[in-house]
Amino acid sequence: MSDTQAAEPLAEPAAEPTGLNRWALRIEYDGTGYLGWQKQNDGTSIQGLIEAAASKLVRNRPVPSITAGRTDAGVHAAGMVIHIDFPDDAPIDARQIRDGMGYHLKPHRVVVLETAKVGPEWNARFSATWRSYRYTILNRPARPGLMENRVWHIKRPLDVNLMQQAANHLLGPHDFTSFRAVACQARSPIRTLDVLNIHRDGELVMIDTKARSFLHHQVRNMAGTLMMIGSRQWPVEKIIEILEAKDRCAAGQTAPPEGLCLMDVGYPDDPFNCS
């Protein structure tokens, strides 16, 4: 699953074994050059790096991980949440996990930000109630220098007011078939967008969105469509026609992965909130 996707979070997780030494981790990473979150037979993935670093803390014993969402190759994360299960006989504390994994993750652009001990019933994927993303467009004639691999470069001027007018039509529950990848494996195309805000900060146009879960490529497909409207190639009303078509071919292009960043994941009881 991807953009990141929650892989049908409404389903009930399988029963968890008791006695796990389970920890929640909040991590950030630059997805450039990696295959995305999920382990692959060939190439470097974020999951592979995380599990290898954790394993080194317990004498190379296996340490499985579960993520709140699986990101595609090239997609970044500022606040991804995962859980990892250390062997139940391995004494370990929060500082050892953060600093020890941080050491073993070098020189990769993957960092453990926070750690929290959680119960065996807590699940990074199924316990989450929302995910938020930001898609960033660099809107200027000159190509990116400092922000290469972090933005989508659009030369044509974008009208963020038109983009927001169109985005408002996507809020709430809808059939997002027109915005899902053809290969999407989700059982239902129905999703509920709680937030879809577009704003400009100088040369940057940011698209912020939040929902319980997203379809495969949904955020990037929405960004590609909103770009067409912001550049005045399509009228605002086109967004209604696209939704009603329930056809991927009706919407805009899939925006490139480098502009997308998972910002945060929400839980009813935030394991990282110590107050």
UniProtKB/TrEMBL annotation:
This is tRNA pseudouridine synthase A. HAMAP family: TruA. NCBIfam families: hisT_truA (TIGR00071). Substrate binds at residue 133. Formation of pseudouridine at positions 38, 39 and 40 in the anticodon stem and loop of transfer RNAs. Belongs to the tRNA pseudouridine synthase TruA family. Residues 166-268 form the Pseudouridine synthase I TruA alpha/beta domain. InterPro entries: PsdUridine_synth_cat_dom_sf, PsdUridine_synth_TruA, PsdUridine_synth_TruA_a/b_dom, PsdUridine_synth_TruA_C, TruA/RsuA/RluB/E/F_N. It catalyses: uridine(38/39/40) in tRNA = pseudouridine(38/39/40) in tRNA. The active site is at 72 (nucleophile). SUPFAM superfamilies: Pseudouridine synthase (SSF55120). Keywords: Isomerase, tRNA processing.
